[in-house]
Amino acid sequence: MLKSKKILAPAKINLCLHVLGRRSDGYHDLAMLMQRVALYDRLTIELAPGDRVTVVCPGCELADNQPNIAERSARLLLAHAGLQRDVSIRITKQIPVAAGLGGGSSDAAAVLLALDELLALFPRKQAPWSACCTTILRLSPAKNIL
Fold this sequence. Notes:
Layout: E1 3-22, E2 28-48, E3 53-56, H1 69-81, E4 86-92, H2 103-119, H3 129-139
Parallel strand pairs: 3-4
Antiparallel strand pairs: 1-2, 2-4
Helix pairs in contact: 1-2, 1-3
């Protein structure tokens, strides 16, 4: 049975960013103040029986054989939950790529939130922010940049 969810992923800007220090895993602890802006990517996430995760992003070149952050977040969440599903992710970009507006991480967070709703992974009273933040930090391209 096919289940689907449409969700908006907002662009965001850093109003303040402070690098607190480097961790032993190579990542950095950060203190940030971010603000959403009125610019959104539109995502459609579809679930079906199976075990493939695919991403389609019309008008964008996705690297061959290298999953983007939205695909990786879906794979990590399914693995964490011990589930197998076909996940089809369609991203309609409105946030410019590599513009410093957080489009990729916002798309990944939107995938996690949509999958949570479709799979009912977290209790409704408990926002899945901890799992989302942990997953996004594990996927961060900021590793070892400073």
